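To whoever is on call:

I kicked off a structure prediction for a single chain this morning and the downstream step that reads the tokens threw a length-mismatch warning. I double-checked the sequence; it's 199 residues and nothing unusual in it as far as I can see. Pasting both halves so you can look.
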Amino acid sequence: MPFVVSSVLADAAMLVAIRRRVVRARPLLGHFQGSWPCTRGANASSLGPMIESTWSTRELPILVEAYRRFEADRHPSFHQLEEIRQEVGLTPNEFLSGLSALADADPPYLEVQFAGGWSDERAGGGFVDSISERARRELGAWPSPESLVDQLVAALERAAADEPESERKRRLQAAAQVIGGMARDVAVGVATAQLGRIS
């Protein structure tokens, strides 16, 4: 118990110290407020061309091709990374950036074994060592909580459309609207918990 109390007190002291540093830093941040392009209240969508999304043009194509090759061949060649790079049509630098982003994500999408030989013309040696649960759900190979809820809503809507009895049809439609609307977050939470028990 004394250890727990001292630990809590130490954490509290650290938070107070951090808060003092933040308060002292605010005037300095305010000094740069007018000269810096992103002003107070700005968000990612308001930054326009300053930040460009790379997911659909870089990471996702790499992930799709990496998954396809990993599933097709569990004993890849030493040149697999260059083969993936050529397939997705990225430069070696773009490919390395995207591959590193996928491997460094938390949790990671994949694990890669890198080797030397990288240049401006081609990727170096190496191969995809594993594909994570996160990647499989992202690609639709495994169900995600969101996809399960969407499937349930779609099933309820189909059942309502095929139901001849008016009262039952009304209840099925209402259930689809609730689960797909204001109760969606609750349904996703339940699905997340259930998938966590299965995984």
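Update from on-call: the warning came from a stale cache, not from the record. Cleared it. Sanity check on the structure: Residues 145-198 form one domain.
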